[in-house]
Amino acid sequence: MKAVPMTRKAFLAVLAATALALTGCSAAGGPAAEGGKGEVVVGALTSLSGANSPSGKNWLEGFKVGLDFAIGGTGEVNGTKITIEEVDDRTDPNTAMTEATDLVGRGVKIIAGTQSSGIALNLAGFAEENDILYITGSANSNQITGANANTFRGSRQAYQDVATLVEGLGDKVDGAKIGILAHDIEYGKSLIETTKTIIGDRAESITEVLAPFPTDDVAPYVQRIKSGDFDIVIPFWSGDVTAMWRALEQQDIFSSAQVMSNIGMRPTWPTYAEIKSPNLSLFTSYVENHVDNDAARFLDKEVAGLGNEVDYIHADGFLAAQMIVHAIGETSAGSTADMIAALEGYSFDSPRGPTSIRAEDHALTAPMVFLHFEDGKAVVDSTVDGADIAPPLP
Q1: Domains defined for the chain, CATH in brackets
Q2: For residue 362, which of 135, 158, 127, 152 has the smallest C-alpha distance?
Q3: What is the per-residue pLDDT for 241?
Q4: What pairs with residue 273 in β-bridges?
Q5: Residue 216 pLDDT more than 70?
Q6: What SS3 state is found at 180?
Q7: What long-range pairs does 25-29 form, CB within 8 A, spacing at least 24?
Q8: Which residue, of 33, 103, 182, 202, has the fewest CB within 10 Å?
Q9: Could you read off the pLDDT of 42-78 as tens digits, one per residue?
């Protein structure tokens, strides 16, 4: 039986009925102290509308598939039923906090999701203040790692992106003029700061070109990249990447610069596939049919069965669900402290491969891959071990 969304009216009714029927059930939405019986409602708070809605919808799809995998289609773990309540943050910080406050006010003790690093940082502080468990969506700011004991990552972070690209560039960074094209958001700023930290003085210079998010007219920003005459260009572009990449090609950036970037969601792949240049290098955190484990095979099959094309956002949602099921399954009383303890140091096979949660700061480590496109399809060239790109301890 698959977990299904619950309306708020139904949710309140279930809470009332459960309170009458189960004397041991936690009033805060956790499993009962005796035998783990009861129900846990997980608030899936993510971007179902607004600028981040395409990735938010994929994250939620992956999250549901991951929950089904982790609980074997039973709808429960160790006798505790798990129900998802879907909530739209509208890619808006104020909406996100309003909805999170509403969830906690109604007894929800676990929240997962959001694609915005800015929103995730707000939710991290909220989780600590309200003593709930929070697992991020595909929000990649470095500041989320180690934010507090209540917050866990559900995706890679900016440091791991930059460490991967530096691994791919090798000694090409030495003495190079580097230009970074990014959005003026928390994620973009985090990537720029991290690039400067990792590369340090190896490069001759590192120059950033920041654009508002979202960006309708990319031409002025790509022109600044063109005028910079950079040896290496690093586009860290969020949302719809097609116009930006086509502008890079039209400005003939690939003939004079090495371009290294992470790839976007599946609908953007044809854009990368159209670029024929030996100076283009690409990486990502997940490619279907590459990882050989049960989780990856289940994700690929189930998402295809839903009529969608799987990408790294699905994998992020999937592994967040795995983490939540482990946290609930390993605790009898379901207290936040118990769930935190269950997750700290936890290692498991996610769709991305061997995945670990560092106990000290909750950094999530998993492999990354370099790839290229052949006949429109992603082909993995090599894998970077998660431990090799782990962020430094604070």
Answers
A1: 8-156+291-362 (3.40.50.2300), 159-284+370-389 (3.40.50.2300)
A2: 152
A3: 87
A4: none
A5: yes
A6: strand
A7: 26/109, 26/333, 26/334, 26/335, 27/107, 28/107, 28/109, 29/107, 29/108, 29/109, 29/110
A8: 202
A9: 999 999 999 899 999 999 999 999 999 999 989 999 8
Whole-model pTM: value is 0.87
Amino acid letter, residue 334 = G
Instruction: List, in sequence order, every residue forming a beta bridge with 112; answer none if it has no partner.
Output: 44, 135
Give the containing element (helix H, strand E) for 209. Answer: strand 205-211
Which amino acid does the sequence have at 394? P
Reference 387, options 190, 198, 163, 195; nearest CA is 163
User: Token digits for 299?
Assistant: 């994700």
Look up tokens 């090798």; give the residue: 170
* Residue 353: band (very low, low, confident or very high) from pLDDT cuts 50, 70, 90: very high
Element (H, E) at 379: strand 377-384
d(CA 145, CA 155): 11
Give the separation between CA 91 and CA 114, rounded to whole angstroms: 8
Q: Which tens digits make up the pLDDT trace of 171-211?
A: 999 999 999 999 998 888 889 999 999 999 999 999 999 99
Cα angle 314, 319, 322; round to 5: 135
CA distances from 286 to 57, 77, 234, 380 (A): 17, 27, 20, 10
DSSP structural state of residue 200? G
Identify residue 2 by its one-letter amino acid code. Answer: K
Cα separation, 115 vs 44, in Å, equals 12
Q: Could you identify the residue written with the tokens 């002025």?
A: 220
Q: Name 282's bridge partners.
A: 261, 371
Q: How far is CA 60 from the centre of its chain?
A: 11
